[in-house]
């Protein structure tokens, strides 16, 4: 595992952790050579909401960073995974459901950078035989604090409600978005990466577990925290959400390499209440 920030104690104790700057090609070469790396999972990116606040940085991290990674993977014959997102679609895409192949005209720099990553990966695959693999994830929900995404209300709500009983949501109550619990996300990634290449009909697949609205999430949390109070004050993130898929069609992933989610809304809520309590509420 690598990053440009200091690891938490838990992360440092959980396995090897080194400094790596996605913008430093030589530094990345050094790591691949000295640690005999054969797979590269490339998670670095500015998410949708934060990307709009600093477009030049998003271009550097999301686009130039991806160029470094894919060139490195080609040179050293690495298997490379790059996540894409529901954010790679836009208002002209069918939103309910959104199939694997359809119009992609995203309106955020994050979405544009992810479409670019998908196309670069497919290009390196067919031109150079690179083993590029990409999953389009929905909103991924874990107990880690929110990181500048549009789907992050579904993370923040657990932290706020467990601390204060209240949450002010920046999306309207009926905004439906596809979502997935972190365990399903990591399991999908792993299962996809070990699938023999003969089974893959494409290099970019939609995956998802469920779709819900802030109102529906609140109702599911209220089964365990009846005193929950939620209010709504939509901001610019509402426009982003309104251009994204509401229901994600991942039937090709289910058919080609056997993707199955394990967490539905009720199971997700139980797991999140437990995770956030354990890690953040004393
Ligand atoms: N969770 C991401 C975001 O909201 C979507 O990929 O930006």
List the helices and strands and how they pair.
Elements: E1 2-3, H1 9-13, E2 18-19, H2 25-34, E3 39-41, H3 48-53, H4 55-76, E4 79-81, E5 84-85, H5 109-128, E6 132-137, E7 139-141, H6 153-164, E8 166-169, E9 177-181, H7 182-193, E10 204-206, E11 210-212, H8 214-222, E12 229-232, H9 237-242, H10 251-257, H11 265-280
Parallel strand pairs: 1-2, 3-4, 4-6, 5-6, 6-10, 7-9, 8-12
Antiparallel strand pairs: 9-11
Helix pairs in contact: 2-4, 4-5, 6-11
Describe the protein in words.
By secondary structure, the protein is α/β, with parallel strands linked by helices. The protein has helices at residues 9-13, 25-34, 48-53, 55-76, 109-128, 153-164, 182-193, 214-222, 237-242, 251-257, 265-280; strands at 2-3, 18-19, 39-41, 79-81, 84-85, 132-137, 139-141, 166-169, 177-181, 204-206, 210-212, 229-232. It is built from eleven helices and twelve strands. The model has no long low-confidence stretch (mean pLDDT 98). The strands form four sheets. Strands 3, 4, 5, 6 and 10 form a five-stranded parallel β-sheet that branches. Strands 7-9-11 form a three-stranded mixed β-sheet. The protein is globular. Strand 1, helix 1 (9-13) and strand 2 form a beta-alpha-beta unit. The longest helix is centred in the N-terminal third of the chain and has 22 residues, at 55-76. It has one domain (38-280): Rossmann fold, CATH 3.40.50. The two termini are 28 Å apart. The structure holds serine. The site of serine has 10 residues, from loops.
């Amino acid at each position: 595992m690598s990053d440009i920030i200091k690891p938490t104690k838990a992360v440092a104790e959980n396995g090897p952790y080194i400094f790596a700057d996605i913008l430093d090609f030589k530094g990345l070469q050094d790591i691949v050579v000295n640690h005999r790396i054969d797979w590269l999972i490339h998670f670095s990116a500015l998410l949708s909401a934060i990307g709009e606040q600093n477009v030049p940085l998003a271009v550097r991290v999301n686009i130039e960073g991806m160029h470094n990674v894919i060139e490195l993977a080609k040179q050293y014959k690495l298997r490379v995974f790059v996540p894409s997102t529901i954010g790679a679609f836009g208002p002209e895409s069918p939103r309910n459901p959104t199939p694997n192949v359809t119009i992609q005209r995203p309106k955020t720099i994050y979405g544009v950078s992810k479409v670019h990553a998908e196309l670069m990966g497919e290009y390196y695959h067919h031109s150079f035989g690179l083993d590029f693999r990409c999953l389009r994830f929905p909103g991924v929900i874990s107990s880690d604090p929110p990181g500048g995404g549009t789907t992050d209300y579904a993370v923040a709500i657990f932290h706020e409600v467990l601390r204060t009983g209240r949450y002010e949501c920046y999306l309207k109550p009926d905004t439906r978005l596809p979502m997935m619990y972190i365990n399903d996300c990591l399991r999908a990634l792993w299962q996809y990466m070990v699938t023999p290449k003969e089974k893959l009909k494409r290099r970019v697949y939609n995956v998802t577990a469920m779709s819900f609205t802030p109102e529906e999430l609140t109702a599911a949390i209220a089964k365990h925290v009846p005193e929950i109070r939620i209010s709504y004050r939509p901001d610019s993130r509402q426009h982003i959400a309104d251009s994204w898929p509401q229901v994600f069609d991942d039937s090709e992933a289910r058919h080609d390499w056997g993707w199955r989610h394990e967490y539905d809304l009720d199971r997700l809520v139980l797991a999140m209440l437990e995770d956030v309590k354990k890690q953040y509420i004393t």
